[in-house]
Amino acid sequence: MPYDRCDRYDCDVLVIGAGIVGLSAAYAVTRAAPGTRVAVLEKERGPALHQTGRNSGVIHSGIYYRPGSLKARYAVRGAAEMVKFCAEHGIAHEVTGKLIVATEREELPRLHALVQRGRENGIPVRELGAAQIAEYEPNVRGLAAIHVGTTGVCDYGAVARQLAESLAASGGEVRYGAEVAAVDRRPWGVAVRTAGGAVVRARVLVNCAGLHCDRVARLAGDDPGMRIVPFRGEYFDLARPELVRGLVYPVPDPAFPFLGVHLTRGIDGGVHVGPNAVPALAREGYAWSAVRPRELAGTLAWPGSWRTARRHWRYGAGELHRSLSKRAFADAVRRLLPDIAEADLRPAPAGVRAQAVLRDGTLVDDFLIREAPRTIHVLNAPSPAATASLPIGRQVARRALGVLGAAGV
Ligand SMILES: Cc1cc2nc3c(=O)[nH]c(=O)nc-3n(C[C@H](O)[C@H](O)[C@H](O)COP(=O)(O)OP(=O)(O)OC[C@H]3O[C@@H](n4cnc5c(N)ncnc54)[C@H](O)[C@@H]3O)c2cc1C
Question: Which CATH number is 340's domain given?
Fold first, then answer.
């Protein structure tokens, strides 16, 4: 696919991945610099078929994240923007508020620390004693809780579809069924080849490939210094949704970027229970039966995977047990919602998180955006990246336009 300087460009900015982050970045380019030619290549037949369409649908308030981190800044801002975006485009959403509930004494200091953190992040929180929990959730039990007013729910798949529509209305293009299989980067531009043999030439490449972002970085010739380790999150639907009014979360373990199995009343009125976090045996491994030996071998060959496993084996063993035994899963949920029985849990579609893991086994906590020549890589965009997608998109767009500017375009 070699090309030389005098070749025409098919677009100025080429984005890989039509999840919410890629679409938001592409849309932000057209907003910030009208007339810039933007194209998105997506391997699937439509937008949002992976993380964006398989999540809890929660508009996170930003309470959990370290003050000053990208997660904290973009989630707080992004939550407000997401509510506005949904309202403007008629997308189903609701600001429900949520409870974070401590069920064990040792969780109380961590609950208190969350109150402090929420206040540092400018989020309205109300502390509740055991008896006050029933004001919000009559069937939930705990020792203490906090109520976070700005949390909500929405349909992120619908948000992504709207972004694709708005992008098209501003002259951008999304090509589906276009898997990027090769990247050829030169000082003056980037050419990609799809699995179908089409070649697209651009001035700047933006990698928003989610579960495959590290592979795309390597296709471009960059060493991302991390690997995506896929963690499946399994869900059940609650057969008696009347047991839960809104959103109910446990106190998370600060050693992990996962929030623990929660109860979420979605915009469809159903209550979803989950997700847990178990290793997926393929990047898009939505069930234990989905195994891709090459991808699995890649995960196992990464030293960080083993170091993470060694460090967190006890937590991991608990999650595996609850994945393989519905009774154990129900027992865990009963800590928050004592009335539920195993039969109340009906299997629902799972999601897989793209979690960046460093060579030393560190689970990357914050969003990670890296620049390489003529390329912007989004290398870690786990939860709450759907909530934060509009600010993330603007940040990526700013960097891509910066590259164009530096190139004198
Ligand atoms: C179980 C679960 C629960 C979650 N809950 C929440 C929540 O409640 N609130 C929240 O804010 N966030 C939540 N998240 C996180 C959120 O879903 C993600 O952060 C967000 O969707 C990431 O978007 P993305 O565009 O980066 O990735 P994706 O949506 O995965 O999109 C990446 C796209 O790139 C495409 N692609 C990959 N490789 C190629 C290639 N070579 N060529 C072309 N296309 C390619 C893929 O097909 C895919 O469509 C959750 C995630 C999971 C998995």
Answer: 3.30.9.10
Å from CA of 31 to ligand 1 middle? 22
**Atom 50 (ligand 1): residue with closest C-alpha?**
55
Residue 369 Cα distances to 44, 135, 226, 233, angstroms: 24, 42, 12, 24
The pair of structure tokens assigned to 55 is: 């999540």
383 C-beta closer than 6 A to ligand 1: yes
CB 203 within 8 A of CB 12: yes
Query: In terms of DSSP H, where are the helices of 90-142?
Result: 108-120, 133-136
Query: pLDDT of 248-270, one tens digit each?
Result: 999 998 777 777 889 999 999 99
CATH number at 209 reads 3.50.50.60
Question: Is residue 189 a part of any domain in this protein?
Answer: yes
Using one digit for the tens of pLDDT, what is the confidence trace for 351-369?
A: 999 999 999 999 999 999 9
CA-proximal residue: ligand 1, atom 31 (nearest): 19
Give the distance (Å) from ligand 1 centre to CA of residue 291.
19
- pLDDT of residue 6 exceeding 50, the answer is no
330 is in which domain, residue-wise? 95-152+231-358
pTM score? 0.96
The predicted pLDDT at position 5 comes to 53
Ligand 1 atom closest to residue 353's alpha carbon, by position in its atom list: 53
208 Cβ contact partners less than 8 Å away, ≥ 6 residues apart: 15, 16, 17, 19, 21, 22, 25, 378, 381, 396
